[in-house]
Amino acid sequence: MARTLITVPPTPKINTVIEIRALIQHPMETGFRPDGEGKLQPRNIIQRFECRFSSGGRSDLIFSAELFPAVSANPYIAFNFRATQSGTLSFLWTGDNGFTQAESVALVVV
Amino acid sequence: MRIALALMFLCLVTYTANSAAATEDLNTTGSNTTDKRKSGYDFMGASTQALQNDDSQNPAMLWVKDGEALWNREAGKDKKSCASCHGAAPKSMRGVAARYPALEEKSGRPISLQQRINLCQKNHQHAAPFAPETPEMLSIESYVGLQSRGLAITPSRDAKLAGFIQSGKARFEQRIGQLDLSCADCHDNYAGKKLGGATIPEAHPTAYPLYRLEWQSLGGVERRLRNCMSGVRAEPYAYGAPEFIELELYLAARAAGMKVETPGVRP
To answer: Is-above-0.90 flag for pTM?
Structure first.
């Protein structure tokens, strides 16, 4: 379980553009760095991030990103979204060694 | 004989004058406008400052959240958590980190906040202590530290600590390592100038534990001090060494009145 920090405006007005921020604790080990004994440390990165918005039985992919070894540790991703109705935002990070982390946050538009 | 005596007298006078000046330095507060001291924050670029300004962007907040969980986690044979005795941290821990290193009555020596946390674990929780610089130790320290954010650093004025502060000052000014440099050589004499591509800050421990972009992780003040020591090619003290605590005590006294920024971000 990785620690995450997701920031969504608490009650955005309908049809406004909001910023969604997602920060996750992850070493993002590049696979190019030697350890103390000179051996290469195996790569351990997050490969993909996606965010879906589900409301009224529908689930849409609203944002996704591919991550690579040059991305820093504890990657921070921010993106915009037009909030047309209330629903649930689900976040999914997947990566090396079967890493998956799922979180969901309620979005309430007024 | 007479010359020797005169010399001794002269030395005494100079020594007293020096320590008087030092005490005066230590008592300056951050509230007056003539305070020219700058936190490491003031030397950073706007983009790094933005990371520290906003908790939703500050990666150190991930550790703080872990620390909050640890605060409420039961440990040891009595199944006691920090909260069992201290209650809610925002109230009970307000201003605590701003006072450390502080005097430990039993040993009569100053201890760091990390050592206080370990003592609490040993004596009250009967739990295994966290090793220095482990994610657990940094998490709980940053969570406690956060509760003092915005408050002035207020080191204890206990007379029993005066000697330790003086030895910390001596360590700060002692040339060490193959490069034969003291802390003061860079951080007093060349603060604000460049060392390679990096700006030399004034060495005020205002934001520890902090997230360093170079480390890609949270780190404590002793990790930073060890960095500097190996930088001048001296052998770093061990984590929690009495020498470090004295140095931290002097640094806290030197930064008295400056605002706590924990958990900070640094380049």
So the answer is: no
